[in-house]
Each structure stands twice: as structure tokens, then as C-alpha cells.
Amino acid sequence: MNPYMSVWSMATNLTDSFPQYWPGTIKAFVGMIRIDGASYRFMSTAGDMAPPIQQTSFKVYPTRTIYEFEERGIRLTLTFMTPLLTDDIELLSRPLTYITWEVASTDGKAHSVQLYYDNTAEIAVDQVSEFVVWRRVPGYNLNIMGIGTASQNLLGLSGDGVGINWGYAYVGTPSTNSNGIKSVSSVMSSATIARQTFVRSGTIPNTDDMRMPRACSDDWPVLAYSWDVNVVPSSSSSSTIMFAYDQVASIKWFGTPLEPYWRHYHTSIADLMDEALGQYESILSRCQTFDTQLLQKANQVGGPKYATSIFQLEINLKLQLETNLNFQLDHFFEILSERLNSQLNFST
């Protein structure tokens, strides 16, 4: 897990705040749903756009966070999953989080439902005055968009509480459903135009805004998706967004820039996303098993309070691709293990 991607919801209700980088800097992600012509937001404040949907529950697990919402006969389940499984170094190195939505009818009736997602360029800048550019990425059966700074000053910042301003943030989702029918629309546009269009009509603009480079805060360019779903009582509908970050270079090792470790297995971000999507069901199953086993063990060792503390541990880990360098990862994991043991060794 990349520490620059340490982004959190700072509220119990997902609609009460924008996600924030750990020092408190906003990194805006927005989600909305339209049910039979009425629009609501399920992620972030953006209160001028739509009222909040009713959140009915949320659960936090070691690798997943699950929110549930209900409104007008529809249940929306939103799952964030970052598969930090330490027994699989290739999977652990992937700079990717899954965001999955699922909608189902709760009143036995059919409903017309549209969903919306966007993220700004804030995730890819240290200061919102920095100029950004964006693009589409062709390849595979995926709709992929990316955004990052125009300057790309690789590894140019350092220090505590500093955001990343090199590399690119990407989002990807299947272009078609299992029947080969187009299932998603996308646009690179200003936040206000994309969000207001969805609230009014359940759609998004069909033309990309290509006024770039421009400041991150100049009309707030976003990468946006929308889905149009007919929900019937007998089944649910779902889709998955992949959010990924390609740093291009992660660290300098005695002056030598090192690529991210995932590049050892994948030639491009599209290649990574394609494999990640194909493995989604198996990775979800592994994460569910891991979460259950870890919480059971923690509860057996220290009780509920001890198990709950597991949620507060985060491994801010970046793995780099070492070329011509004899770097022993087992030593690193030995140090990491000792550090985690010391963090867990508190009195109840």
C-alpha cells in the first residue's frame, strides 16, 4: 500500500465529509444514485448537488469496508476492497483498490436506477494550484481514464504530510456487461457540469473537456462514470470500479530511480487492471477468508477490544522493482513483523 494513497473517510456516514489524505487534505471522490427520477448522494458532501441517501450500516474489516444504504425501495451496497494479503507479494504490490456497487429492490417492485462516480485530480497533486492533464487509455474490454500533473517532477517532493505530484491516478471499469452490451458512460469534465447533469437527467456529458493543462482547482476536472440500470425484484445488479495509481518511479536507491514492483509482472496499467478485474471473484473470496481468520485469531488472543484494534493498523508499504540490486525482502518483512508485534502489544 502506497502511503500517498492513505485516503480515509473521516465520518461514520460516508455522506458527511469528503475523503481526506491522512494530514487532512481533501481528496474528493463523489458518488450519487438516482432512483425513479430522484437523485441522492452516497459518497462525499457535495450537498449542493443532491441530498444524502439514508445510510443503514457500515462494517470495517481488515481488507474491506462495506456500506449499506436504502431509499425509495432500493438497497445500495458499496464495498471498498484493498487486497493487502501479505502471503502474495505480487498482489500486495498492486497499487489498486476495488470499489463495487450493488443495487437490489427491497419492495418487490421494478425501479429505474442510475449511478454516478467521479474523482477529482486532487489525489494526484500536492497543491490544488498545480496544473494537471488527463487522458483515456485504450486496451482490453475496459473503460480507463487517467489524470496527473503536467510537470511530472518525479520524486521531487519529500517530507511528512506531503502529497504526491508525480505519476498518474487511473480509474477503470468494464466497458460492456456479460452480454456484450455497453454498460457504462464516461466523461472527463468539470465537476460541476458532470454532477449537475447527472442530478438533472441521470446522464453525464458525452463530450470530454479538453481544456488542459489547467489548475486542479480551475473548474475542478474530474474522471466520471455513470451507469443506467433497470432493477427487477428477482435479482441484483452490480459493477466494479478499479482505482489505481502508477507512480512511474517510487524511490531512489542510492540515486537510482526504481520502478514500482508491480511492473515486474505487468507492462502497463491497462494490463494490470485487466488481470485484476479477471481475478476479482477469487481475490474477494481470499479477502473474506483472511478477514474472518484474522479477526477470529485476534479475538481469541485479546478479546473484542484487541480485535477491533486490528482495524487501526495500516501497513504503508511500497515495493519497488530492484534491478541489479541485491536487496533482501525477507529482512524487510522481519523488521515489519517486529514493528507490528510491538504495535499490537498493548494492555487491555
Put the structure in a nutshell.
This protein has 348 residues and is of the alpha+beta class.
How far apart the termini lie comes to 29 Å
Can you list the strand order of the major beta sheet? 5-6-7-8-16-12-11-10-14
The biggest beta sheet is recorded as:
9 strands, antiparallel
Our Rg estimate from Cα atoms comes to: 20 Å
Fraction of residues in helices?
A: 10-25%
Silhouette? globular
**Count of runs of 4 or more consecutive helical residues:** 6
Based on secondary structure, the structural category is: alpha+beta
Q: Strands, helices and their partners?
A:
Blueprint: E1 7-8, E2 20-21, E3 29-35, E4 38-43, E5 54-60, E6 64-71, E7 74-81, H1 89-93, E8 96-105, E9 111-120, E10 131-137, E11 142-149, E12 168-174, E13 185-190, H2 191-201, E14 214-215, E15 221-231, E16 237-246, E17 251-253, E18 256-260, H3 269-278, H4 280-302, H5 304-309, E19 320-321, H6 329-344
Antiparallel strand pairs: 1-2, 3-4, 3-9, 5-6, 6-7, 7-8, 8-16, 9-15, 10-11, 10-14, 11-12, 12-16, 13-15, 17-18, 18-19
Report what the structure shows:
- There is one protein chain.
- The chain is of the alpha+beta class and 348 residues long.
- It is built from six helices and 19 strands.
- It has a nine-stranded antiparallel beta sheet, covered by helices on one side. Strands 4-3-9-15-13 form a five-stranded antiparallel beta sheet.
- The model is unreliable at 323-348 (pLDDT under 50).
